Each structure stands twice: as structure tokens, then as C-alpha cells.
TrEMBL record:
It comes from Ferirhizobium litorale. This is ABC transporter ATP-binding protein. The lineage of its organism: Bacteria, Pseudomonadati, Pseudomonadota, Alphaproteobacteria, Hyphomicrobiales. It comes from the Bacteria. The keyword Transport applies. Belongs to the ABC transporter superfamily.
Length: 342
């Protein structure tokens, strides 16, 4: 099993704050890890260290219990059995689709019949059987990306690295490609490490999400867990929709707070008690006469429902959904069924 381990990994460029700081995580073979974080937080640098294009300043990288990089030595990229899919696809324009996909096999001296078979399988895996003889210029953006994926599939890598591969595609194509990535992952059995700043993409694709900010790992967990139990304000704000309320901290309460506790907290707002950040998801807010007074500041029609932004009497903002039409400026009352203390 080719488990990938990053062990207290650091990367410094020059003198400023390190691009990656003391980052440790383990990815078991066959997992699909999304590295999620805002632009500039160090995602690409982590990926490039895993690939072997950058050397760690400190810490180490292990693959299948073997150290492949540390500050003293590193295994060159071509010896790591990894494949990196670039955003630009990097296809050879003068070669056909089949030739592009077969190129890594040719370089490795794989026998022609065997290479042909592998190329056919890879074409099939990305559903491009009918396009084998076309050239990249004759393909759409999504099809080119599939070719790039197929080319990486033929080498049977242990680890596939993808750096924001969908950033240049339109929304419709992104959805189609998300499905292609999931299928590709299921078929190849490879470990995938997928860099993105798009939380919806990370949640939809990955088996595990690692949230980064300012070079550090804040939390790593399956998407459902990151969504339900985010650790701290940054993760809470980055993952999923919601609003963060600042309310008096009532000692002795659980982290998952219900309406009676929240109501009690609202009542003690003026009393100078220490405060806590409470994340409230829109689906946990219902319009209900028994609740807090609020004003609808925006109502966005999403087809199935309206997505609302609400202003509470104390100036804090909430998000909610409503199936019934709601107008901007309307006064409503809301009950918060659940909140999560960050
Ligand atoms: P992300 O991919 O999350 O947007 P990067 O890993 O590209 O972030 O960059 C993290 C930080 O490291 C940024 O501040 C960036 O300017 C810096 N950085 C990245 N590569 C280099 C480099 N080759 N030389 C100097 N600074 C770099
Ligand atoms: Mg980047």
C-alpha cells in the first residue's frame, strides 16, 4: 500500500513567512484528498513538493514507508511513480489523441502491442474512444482535459496530483468534469491529491478535505465531518454556507447548541460575558413567529427555494432558506434550530 505521509513539512522562499509551515498529514492509498484554501495559502507549494519539483526546507515526505524527500535529499520526480495534471493540459499539438496518451509509454519503452492496449483502455476510461485520431485543436476544453487524464492513467501512477484543473472551465463543463474525475478515481485506484480554492468542488469530489490557511493545515476530515464539525472560525467560514454569530458563551453547554440554549445566549447579550463564535447553517434557521425579530436584507431565488440574508435586531446577520416567496425589506421572525460552537 502506497501510503503518502507529509511529516512536519516546511517550505521557505527567502526571508518572509514560510509558504508552508509544519504541515503533517497522511493519505492512504486510493483516497481522494482535496487541498482546500484561499489563494496564496501554499497549496501549489505542497503539491510541488509532493511531485518533486520543490525541495522541503524542513520535514519529510514518505511514500510507501520510504522517505522520498527531506531538506537533505530528494528523489527526482520521474522516480516517484506520480503524475501531475496541469491546468494547461500540456498536450502535444502535432500528435493525435491516441499518440498523446501513448507518449509516456513510448518514452518508457513499453512494447507496441501492450502500449496500444493500454491506450485503448485509457481512452475508454475517459470516454474518448471515438476521438483517438483527432488532434488537440479539434477538441473542446473538457475533452482536452480528459486526454490529459488518460495520459496520466496509462502510466498507472500511485499518486495523481491535480492543481486547480477546472479553474479555466465554465460551470456546466466543470460539473461534467467533476463526474469524470470521480469515475477516473474509482477506476484507477490511484491516490488523488486535488488542489482547489472552491469549497463546493472539494466537497463534491473528495473523500477527505484538508483545509489550509497561511501555510498551515487547519483541519483534515471527510467532507461531511468538516461541514458538520468545523474546527475554528476560518474553516467554519470557508466550508459550506452559513453565518457566524458572536454570542455570550454559556459554560457547561455542548458544542452543538439547540434553540433554548441559543435563545438564552441572545437574552444575555448585553451583560458583558465572554463571547463565542457560533456557526449557523441556513437549513437550521426556520421562519417562525415564536422566534427572533429579523429583516430580510436579500432574497435570492434559486429555483427550489429562496436564499435569504437576514438582519437581526442586534445587527448580526443570518442566512436562511424559504420555500415561500419572501420579499426584501420584509419583517420576519426566526428560530435557530441548531448552532455549532467553533
Ligand atoms: P496557492 O497555490 O495556495 O495559491 P502557493 O503555494 O502558490 O499558494 O504560494 C504560497 C506562497 O508562497 C505565496 O505567498 C507565494 O507568493 C509564495 N511562493 C510560491 N512559489 C514561490 C517561489 N517560487 N518563490 C517565491 N515565493 C513563492
Ligand atoms: Mg496555486
Amino acid at each position: 500500500m502506497a501510503t503518502l505521509t507529509l511529516n512536519r513539512l516546511c517550505k521557505r522562499f527567502g526571508t518572509g513567512a514560510p509558504a508552508v509551515h509544519d504541515l503533517s498529514l497522511t493519505v492512504e492509498q486510493g483516497r481522494f484528498l482535496a487541498l482546500l484554501g484561499p489563494s496564496g495559502c501554499g497549496k501549489t507549494t505542497v503539491l510541488r513538493m509532493i511531485a518533486g519539483f520543490e525541495q522541503p526546507s524542513d520535514g519529510s515526505i514518505e511514500l510507501a514507508e520510504r522517505t522520498i524527500a527531506n531538506a537533505a535529499a530528494m528523489l527526482p520526480p520521474e522516480k516517484r511513480n506520480m503524475a501531475m495534471v496541469f491546468q494547461s493540459y500540456a498536450l502535444w499539438p502535432h500528435m493525435t489523441v491516441a499518440e498523446n496518451i501513448g507518449y509516456p509509454l513510448k518514452v518508457r519503452g513499453v512494447a507496441r502491442e501492450r502500449a496500444r492496449k493500454k491506450v485503448r483502455e485509457a481512452l475508454d476510461a475517459v470516454r474518448l474512444e471515438a476521438f483517438a485520431e483527432r488532434r488537440p485543436a479539434e477538441l473542446s476544453g473538457g475533452q482536452r482535459q480528459r486526454v490529459a487524464l488518460a495520459r496520466c492513467l496509462v502510466t498507472e501512477p500511485d499518486v495523481v496530483l491535480l492543481d486547480e484543473p477546472l479553474a479555466n472551465l465554465d460551470r456546466h463543463l466543470r460539473q461534467e468534469m467533476e463526474e469524470a474525475f470521480r469515475e477516473f478515481h474509482a477506476r484507477s485506484g490511484a491516490t488523488m491529491i486535488y488542489v482547489t480554492h472552491d469549497q463546493a468542488e472539494a466537497m463534491a469530489l473528495a473523500t477527505d478535505v484538508a483545509v489550509m490557511a497561511e501555510g498551515r493545515l487547519l483541519q483534515m476530515a471527510p467532507p461531511e465531518e468538516i461541514y458538520a464539525r468545523p474546527e475554528g472560525r476560518i474553516v467554519g467560514a470557508l466550508v459550506g454556507r452559513g453565518a457566524i454569530l458572536s454570542l455570550p458563551h454559556l459554560p457547561g453547554t455542548d458544542r452543538l447548541l439547540d434553540w433554548p440554549v441559543l435563545q438564552a445566549a441572545f437574552r444575555q447579550c448585553g451583560e458583558g460575558l465572554p463571547r463565542a463564535d457560533i456557526l449557523v447553517r441556513p437549513q437550521d434557521v426556520t421562519l417562525d413567529r415564536e422566534g427572533l425579530q429579523a429583516v430580510v436584507t436579500s432574497a435570492l431565488f434559486e429555483g427550489e427555494r429562496y436564499a435569504l440574508r437576514l438582519l437581526l435586531g442586534d445587527g448580526q446577520t443570518l442566512r436562511a432558506f424559504s420555500r415561500q416567496p419572501v420579499r426584501e425589506g420584509e419583517a420576519v421572525a426566526v428560530v435557530i434550530r441548531a448552532g455549532w460552537r467553533l
